[in-house]
Amino acid sequence: MAADPSSFKEKKVITIGIVSELTGLSERQIRYYEERKLVFPERTPGGSRRYSFVDVEQLVEIANKIEDGVQTYEIRQEMIKEKKKHKDEAHKKMIQGQLNARFGVRKY
Amino acid sequence: MAADPSSFKEKKVITIGIVSELTGLSERQIRYYEERKLVFPERTPGGSRRYSFVDVEQLVEIANKIEDGVQTYEIRQEMIKEKKKHKDEAHKKMIQGQLNARFGVRKY
DNA sequence: CGTGTAAGGAATTCTGACACG
DNA sequence: CGTGTAAGGAATTCTGACACG
Protein backbone atom coordinates (compact mmCIF):
# COMPACT_ATOMS: atom_id res chain seq x y z
CA MET A 1 0.00 0.00 0.00
CA ALA A 2 2.73 2.46 0.97
CA ALA A 3 5.60 3.08 -1.46
CA ASP A 4 8.05 0.22 -1.62
CA PRO A 5 11.01 1.37 0.46
CA SER A 6 13.41 -0.65 -1.68
CA SER A 7 11.97 0.93 -4.82
CA PHE A 8 14.41 1.40 -7.64
CA LYS A 9 13.07 4.84 -8.33
CA GLU A 10 14.29 6.08 -5.00
CA LYS A 11 17.73 4.50 -5.04
CA LYS A 12 20.51 7.06 -5.30
CA VAL A 13 22.68 5.61 -8.01
CA ILE A 14 22.93 8.11 -10.85
CA THR A 15 25.90 10.39 -11.36
CA ILE A 16 25.47 14.05 -12.20
CA GLY A 17 26.66 13.58 -15.76
CA ILE A 18 23.87 11.11 -16.48
CA VAL A 19 21.35 13.28 -14.68
CA SER A 20 22.43 16.10 -16.93
CA GLU A 21 21.81 13.93 -19.99
CA LEU A 22 18.48 12.71 -18.66
CA THR A 23 17.15 16.14 -17.77
CA GLY A 24 18.86 18.36 -20.28
CA LEU A 25 20.04 20.57 -17.43
CA SER A 26 23.64 21.65 -17.00
CA GLU A 27 25.66 20.27 -14.12
CA ARG A 28 25.90 23.83 -12.89
CA GLN A 29 22.13 24.07 -12.65
CA ILE A 30 21.83 20.73 -10.90
CA ARG A 31 24.42 21.67 -8.31
CA TYR A 32 22.83 25.06 -7.80
CA TYR A 33 19.43 23.54 -7.05
CA GLU A 34 21.11 21.46 -4.41
CA GLU A 35 22.70 24.58 -2.96
CA ARG A 36 19.21 26.05 -2.75
CA LYS A 37 18.03 22.89 -0.98
CA LEU A 38 15.70 21.68 -3.68
CA VAL A 39 17.36 18.29 -4.24
CA PHE A 40 19.30 16.06 -1.90
CA PRO A 41 21.67 13.67 -3.61
CA GLU A 42 23.74 11.25 -1.62
CA ARG A 43 27.50 11.11 -1.86
CA THR A 44 29.99 8.36 -2.57
CA PRO A 45 32.84 7.94 -0.13
CA GLY A 46 34.87 9.94 -2.62
CA GLY A 47 32.40 12.82 -2.60
CA SER A 48 30.56 12.35 -5.91
CA ARG A 49 26.83 13.06 -6.02
CA ARG A 50 24.35 10.23 -6.58
CA TYR A 51 20.77 10.90 -7.62
CA SER A 52 17.63 8.75 -7.84
CA PHE A 53 15.07 8.65 -10.64
CA VAL A 54 12.74 10.53 -8.33
CA ASP A 55 15.38 13.24 -8.03
CA VAL A 56 15.62 13.36 -11.80
CA GLU A 57 11.87 13.83 -12.10
CA GLN A 58 11.88 16.55 -9.48
CA LEU A 59 14.74 18.33 -11.18
CA VAL A 60 12.69 18.57 -14.35
CA GLU A 61 9.77 20.01 -12.40
CA ILE A 62 12.04 22.50 -10.70
CA ALA A 63 13.50 23.59 -14.01
CA ASN A 64 10.01 24.08 -15.42
CA LYS A 65 9.00 26.29 -12.55
CA ILE A 66 12.12 28.37 -12.86
CA GLU A 67 11.40 28.80 -16.53
CA ASP A 68 8.00 30.11 -15.47
CA GLY A 69 9.73 32.74 -13.36
CA VAL A 70 9.32 31.07 -9.99
CA GLN A 71 12.30 31.66 -7.71
CA THR A 72 14.13 28.86 -5.96
CA TYR A 73 13.07 30.26 -2.61
CA GLU A 74 9.41 30.00 -3.53
CA ILE A 75 9.85 26.52 -4.91
CA ARG A 76 11.40 25.58 -1.63
CA GLN A 77 8.45 26.99 0.31
CA GLU A 78 6.09 24.93 -1.82
CA MET A 79 8.11 21.84 -1.07
CA ILE A 80 8.01 22.49 2.64
CA LYS A 81 4.25 22.86 2.50
CA GLU A 82 3.98 19.62 0.60
CA LYS A 83 6.08 17.87 3.18
CA LYS A 84 3.93 19.24 5.99
CA LYS A 85 0.81 18.01 4.29
CA HIS A 86 2.25 14.54 3.95
CA LYS A 87 3.32 14.55 7.55
CA ASP A 88 -0.18 15.51 8.65
CA GLU A 89 -1.63 12.72 6.60
CA ALA A 90 0.81 10.25 8.08
CA HIS A 91 -0.05 11.54 11.54
CA LYS A 92 -3.75 11.14 10.91
CA LYS A 93 -3.16 7.61 9.71
CA MET A 94 -1.14 6.80 12.78
CA ILE A 95 -3.86 8.08 15.10
CA GLN A 96 -6.36 6.05 13.16
CA GLY A 97 -4.14 3.02 13.55
CA GLN A 98 -3.91 3.52 17.28
CA LEU A 99 -7.65 3.86 17.58
CA ASN A 100 -8.12 0.69 15.60
CA ALA A 101 -5.65 -1.15 17.77
CA ARG A 102 -7.32 0.19 20.93
CA PHE A 103 -10.90 -0.48 20.04
CA GLY A 104 -10.66 -3.02 17.29
CA VAL A 105 -11.76 -2.72 13.71
CA ARG A 106 -13.06 -4.94 11.02
CA LYS A 107 -10.65 -4.91 8.11
CA TYR A 108 -13.17 -6.08 5.55
CA MET B 1 0.74 -5.87 -20.70
CA ALA B 2 4.26 -5.91 -22.11
CA ALA B 3 7.08 -4.42 -20.05
CA ASP B 4 7.07 -0.65 -20.06
CA PRO B 5 9.82 0.29 -22.49
CA SER B 6 10.56 3.47 -20.60
CA SER B 7 10.83 1.49 -17.37
CA PHE B 8 13.34 2.82 -14.91
CA LYS B 9 14.61 -0.65 -14.21
CA GLU B 10 15.89 -0.97 -17.72
CA LYS B 11 17.52 2.42 -18.07
CA LYS B 12 21.29 2.22 -18.28
CA VAL B 13 22.37 4.84 -15.82
CA ILE B 14 24.53 3.21 -13.15
CA THR B 15 28.32 3.37 -13.16
CA ILE B 16 30.42 0.33 -12.45
CA GLY B 17 31.50 1.61 -9.06
CA ILE B 18 27.89 1.78 -7.86
CA VAL B 19 27.12 -1.59 -9.41
CA SER B 20 30.03 -2.97 -7.46
CA GLU B 21 28.59 -1.55 -4.24
CA LEU B 22 25.10 -2.79 -5.07
CA THR B 23 26.14 -6.32 -5.94
CA GLY B 24 29.21 -6.82 -3.79
CA LEU B 25 31.12 -7.91 -6.87
CA SER B 26 34.50 -6.47 -7.81
CA GLU B 27 34.78 -4.25 -10.86
CA ARG B 28 37.05 -6.89 -12.29
CA GLN B 29 34.33 -9.49 -12.04
CA ILE B 30 31.74 -7.21 -13.57
CA ARG B 31 33.97 -6.40 -16.52
CA TYR B 32 34.84 -10.03 -16.99
CA TYR B 33 31.19 -11.07 -17.20
CA GLU B 34 30.80 -8.53 -19.94
CA GLU B 35 33.80 -9.97 -21.74
CA ARG B 36 32.05 -13.33 -21.55
CA LYS B 37 28.91 -11.74 -22.99
CA LEU B 38 26.71 -12.16 -19.96
CA VAL B 39 25.90 -8.48 -19.46
CA PHE B 40 25.65 -5.64 -21.92
CA PRO B 41 26.15 -2.20 -20.43
CA GLU B 42 25.93 0.88 -22.56
CA ARG B 43 28.73 3.40 -22.81
CA THR B 44 28.97 7.13 -22.30
CA PRO B 45 30.54 9.16 -25.08
CA GLY B 46 33.68 9.01 -22.96
CA GLY B 47 33.62 5.23 -22.80
CA SER B 48 32.39 4.57 -19.26
CA ARG B 49 30.01 1.67 -18.69
CA ARG B 50 26.41 2.29 -17.66
CA TYR B 51 24.22 -0.47 -16.21
CA SER B 52 20.51 -0.79 -15.48
CA PHE B 53 18.87 -2.22 -12.38
CA VAL B 54 17.99 -5.25 -14.44
CA ASP B 55 21.68 -5.67 -15.21
CA VAL B 56 22.43 -5.43 -11.51
CA GLU B 57 19.93 -8.17 -10.74
CA GLN B 58 21.33 -10.37 -13.46
CA LEU B 59 24.86 -9.85 -12.24
CA VAL B 60 23.86 -11.18 -8.86
CA GLU B 61 22.31 -14.25 -10.46
CA ILE B 62 25.40 -14.80 -12.57
CA ALA B 63 27.64 -14.54 -9.54
CA ASN B 64 25.50 -17.08 -7.69
CA LYS B 65 25.75 -19.57 -10.51
CA ILE B 66 29.49 -19.15 -10.72
CA GLU B 67 29.70 -19.76 -7.01
CA ASP B 68 27.82 -22.99 -7.68
CA GLY B 69 30.52 -24.00 -10.11
CA VAL B 70 28.70 -23.15 -13.32
CA GLN B 71 31.04 -21.82 -16.00
CA THR B 72 30.42 -18.58 -17.83
CA TYR B 73 30.05 -20.48 -21.09
CA GLU B 74 27.23 -22.59 -19.68
CA ILE B 75 25.52 -19.57 -18.21
CA ARG B 76 25.66 -17.99 -21.62
CA GLN B 77 24.06 -21.06 -23.21
CA GLU B 78 21.25 -20.90 -20.70
CA MET B 79 20.72 -17.26 -21.55
CA ILE B 80 20.58 -17.99 -25.25
CA LYS B 81 17.98 -20.67 -24.63
CA GLU B 82 15.95 -18.26 -22.56
CA LYS B 83 16.08 -15.71 -25.31
CA LYS B 84 14.99 -18.28 -27.88
CA LYS B 85 12.05 -19.23 -25.73
CA HIS B 86 10.96 -15.63 -25.47
CA LYS B 87 11.34 -15.15 -29.16
CA ASP B 88 9.17 -18.20 -29.85
CA GLU B 89 6.52 -16.89 -27.52
CA ALA B 90 6.61 -13.52 -29.22
CA HIS B 91 6.35 -15.25 -32.57
CA LYS B 92 3.36 -17.28 -31.45
CA LYS B 93 1.67 -14.15 -30.23
CA MET B 94 2.29 -12.40 -33.50
CA ILE B 95 0.77 -15.26 -35.48
CA GLN B 96 -2.17 -15.20 -33.15
CA GLY B 97 -2.51 -11.48 -33.72
CA GLN B 98 -2.45 -11.93 -37.46
CA LEU B 99 -5.10 -14.61 -37.27
CA ASN B 100 -7.24 -12.37 -35.14
CA ALA B 101 -6.84 -9.51 -37.56
CA ARG B 102 -7.62 -11.78 -40.52
CA PHE B 103 -10.66 -13.53 -39.15
CA GLY B 104 -11.75 -11.30 -36.33
CA VAL B 105 -11.98 -12.15 -32.65
CA ARG B 106 -14.06 -11.24 -29.68
CA LYS B 107 -11.82 -9.71 -27.05
CA TYR B 108 -14.22 -10.37 -24.19
C1' DC C 1 38.73 -20.36 -15.82
C1' DG C 2 37.89 -16.66 -12.97
C1' DT C 3 39.93 -13.03 -10.43
C1' DG C 4 43.51 -9.90 -8.18
C1' DT C 5 46.68 -6.30 -9.01
C1' DA C 6 49.97 -2.53 -10.53
C1' DA C 7 50.37 0.83 -14.54
C1' DG C 8 49.46 4.80 -17.20
C1' DG C 9 46.14 7.49 -19.23
C1' DA C 10 41.63 9.51 -20.08
C1' DA C 11 37.07 10.93 -18.56
C1' DT C 12 34.32 12.52 -14.63
C1' DT C 13 33.34 15.21 -10.75
C1' DC C 14 34.37 18.56 -7.07
C1' DT C 15 34.88 23.23 -5.01
C1' DG C 16 35.49 28.22 -4.91
C1' DA C 17 35.58 32.19 -7.66
C1' DC C 18 34.80 35.70 -11.23
C1' DA C 19 31.38 37.36 -14.50
C1' DC C 20 26.86 39.08 -16.09
C1' DG C 21 22.90 41.12 -14.65
C1' DC D 1 19.02 35.47 -8.97
C1' DG D 2 20.40 31.90 -11.87
C1' DT D 3 23.92 30.29 -14.82
C1' DG D 4 28.33 30.06 -17.68
C1' DT D 5 33.15 29.34 -17.42
C1' DA D 6 38.26 28.61 -16.54
C1' DA D 7 41.24 26.46 -12.79
C1' DG D 8 43.42 22.97 -10.23
C1' DG D 9 42.86 18.89 -7.89
C1' DA D 10 40.85 14.51 -6.54
C1' DA D 11 38.07 10.44 -7.53
C1' DT D 12 36.49 7.26 -11.12
C1' DT D 13 36.95 4.38 -14.96
C1' DC D 14 39.39 2.28 -18.91
C1' DT D 15 42.47 -1.08 -21.25
C1' DG D 16 46.08 -4.52 -21.67
C1' DA D 17 49.05 -7.37 -19.14
C1' DC D 18 51.17 -10.42 -15.70
C1' DA D 19 50.06 -13.74 -12.09
C1' DC D 20 47.94 -17.87 -10.03
C1' DG D 21 46.06 -22.07 -11.04
Automatic annotation (TrEMBL), chains A, B:
Domain HTH merR-type: 13-81
Record flagged with keyword Transcription regulation: yes
Keyword Transmembrane: no
Stored InterPro entries: DNA-bd_dom_put_sf, MerR-type_HTH_dom, MerR_fam
MF-aspect GO terms: DNA binding; DNA-binding transcription factor activity
Record keywords: DNA-binding, Repressor, Transcription, Transcription regulation
Protein name (record): Transcriptional regulator
Gene source species: Mesobacillus selenatarsenatis (strain DSM 18680 / JCM 14380 / FERM P-15431 / SF-1)
